[in-house]
């Protein structure tokens, strides 16, 4: 009799602990750069607490995914579209009894712009010292404006033509 009541108490404690620990869910929507839902994308969910839990769910026709019955904890969530990783959230926290919403909105690809450095000489007319390097793109636009706010664009002819507005000072002894 004592053994039977002891086993019933242990089962009761396990049920109470499970209810206290609770389960959680991750859900969200995946959209392409135009704002349309992405169907059939893989959402990989991996436990971050050192456990070996891993699950892959697919988005439906509306781009929605859900993964219920997760233990409360921290997860790594990775979005894979057509075999390519598009996004990854390293620390997605889940809460007991409340689904965690993780939406993915993909951005359009940007064209890689090549950049290179150009030496801007000082305004003293010499090429020795006091100039600065400025990063520009292929179109000649300043790509990194740090320290280059006073850079004016000019043609090569402007640098070859002598300045005609120079003023010469007269000495006080000459008349």
Write up this protein.
This protein has 175 residues and is mostly beta strands. Among the domains are: 24-105, Immunoglobulin-like (Sandwich), CATH 2.60.40.1120; 115-150, no CATH class. The chain contains two helices and eleven strands; from the N terminus they run αβββββββββββα. The longest helix has 20 residues, at 2-21. It is elongated and about 75 Å long. 9% of the residues are buried. Mean pLDDT is 75; it is low at 1-20, 147-151 and 164-169.
Main attributes of the structure:
175 residues; mainly beta; Immunoglobulin-like; 4-stranded mixed sheet; 4-stranded antiparallel sheet; 11 strands; 14% helix; elongated; disordered N terminus
The helix/strand order is HEEEEEEEEEEEH
Strand fraction equals 35-45%
Q: Helix count, per DSSP?
A: 2
Architecture of the domain at 24-105 in CATH?
A: Sandwich
CATH C-level name of the domain at 24-105: Mainly Beta
Q: Tell me, rounded to a whole number, the average pLDDT.
A: 75
What is the straight-line distance between the termini? Answer: 129 Å
CATH topology type of the domain at 24-105: Immunoglobulin-like
- Overall, the morphology is elongated
Sheet bearing the most strands, described?
A: 4 strands, mixed
Q: Radius of gyration from the CA trace?
A: 33 Å
- The SS-based structural class is mainly beta
